[in-house]
Amino acid sequence: xxxxxxxxxxxxxxxxxxxxxxxxxxxxxxxxxxxxxxxxxxxxxxxxxxxxxxxxxxxxxxxxxxxxxxxxxxxxxxxxxxxxxxxxxxxxxxx
Amino acid sequence: xxxxxxxxxxxxxxxxxxxxxxxxxxxxxxxxxxxxxxxxxxxxxxxxxxxxxxxxxxxxxxxxxxxxxxxxxxxxxxxxxxxxxxxxxxxxxxx
Lengths: 95, 95
Hints:
The structure is a homodimer. Chain A is an alpha+beta fold. The first copy, chain A, has helices at residues 15-28, 42-57, and strands at residues 7-9, 33-39, 61-73, 83-94. A four-stranded mixed beta sheet of chain A has the order 1-2-4-3, covered by helices on one side. In chain A, helix 1 (15-28) crosses helix 2 (42-57). Chain A is elongated and about 45 Å long. Chain A binds chain B through residues 40-41, 43-44, 47-48, 50-51, 55, 63, 66, 68-70, 84, 86, 88, 90, and chain B through 40-41, 43-44, 47-48, 50-51, 55, 63, 66, 68-70, 84, 86, 88, 90.
């Protein structure tokens, strides 16, 4: 199985959408590990998703690793400079 | 020295304000460790502060620990229910 199947990309939707994606990912494959990836403002949503999934739905989950990073993004319309955007990866493991 | 002196609370100001606070904290005391604390939307700013301080100003820093959590906040004006808010603590250590 490719590793990407166990990755949930966090965007601008409400946190509950991604919570459902994480639960589905754990239940549909026999994986012990799902990684959340987010950048910019979605970082807060990624933390919400980890906390909600863990506290409300899968109490046997734990956060087994968190990595911060920075990515260069192309300039916005009408701007000249590329932007630096922070990223986060949160690895959730089933105990 | 109290531990609180080595904690930088991240709020709604621009990230560079807190980057300066972190650098000052490392230089004014002889500490090897500063902790960033944030909740809600400020979580993204906290990650920005860790990344900018590390990449642009203090290349010998590393993220030595990240803890996620949830806090109960009092209800907003006109609402009945308390809200759950995600939190993050990012520990920065000088190598």
